[in-house]
């Protein structure tokens, strides 16, 4: 099971789910596989941990990062530029949207409805069972319903992102996979992939994992820490 995505893919999730790290590393993975990737930062909630913080590393790899104009870079306003509208009306390769937390992000998606008319985007919900508000199956389903109601879009798949940052163990990843599987089954949608810190990828026993596994190289770090190096090497493993 290789991780293959194309068309318009929208990444949504609760605050603290790790959604933006997933979007960045997914862009790198698909770019390494030869897919043209355009990544739009529409996260209006968290002013510090956004896709735009990794833009230079992404652009060095040839990934097209679509951002608001510099003067609006740190604004918490729904800046939906003509470039974003254009990439949705005429998608090619992988058109990836990083949309910020919960109902605020859902409101942004609703504003994009006209640009996506006639399109069938994949809307993937990132869940982290180690974070408040997504630590039970019922809580994940309630969040899904809230996002769908505000966005007027249907969530089509689940991304499992169980991590404790530097404290993550292989046991955490396997427990997170089991949890994400239960959520996907309860929602009757696929578990598209799960994630693991890159350092754990070769140590993870994947015989009981039946979906792709995406390795994460952490980019969104506090000022006193250094981001991991992004590269075009292998970043996903077969399940």
What would you say this structure looks like, in words?
- 30% of the residues lie in helices and 19% in strands.
- The protein is an alpha/beta fold and 239 residues long.
- The chain has one domain: Rossmann fold, CATH 3.40.50.300.
- A 9-stranded mixed β-sheet has the order 3-2-4-1-5-6-7-8-9, with helices on both faces.
- α6 links the parallel β6 (157-160) and β7.
- It starts with 6 loop residues before the first strand and ends with a strand.
CATH superfamily: P-loop containing nucleotide triphosphate hydrolases
Tally of separate domains: 1
Helix % is 25-40%
Note the gap between the termini. 6 Å
What are the low-pLDDT stretches, counting only 5+ consecutive residues below 50? none
Sketch the topology as an H/E string, one letter per element. Answer: EHEHEHEHEHEHEEE
User: How many individual helices?
Assistant: 6
Which topology does CATH recognise? Rossmann fold
Summarize the structure.
The protein has six helices and nine strands. It is an alpha/beta fold. The chain has one domain: Rossmann fold.
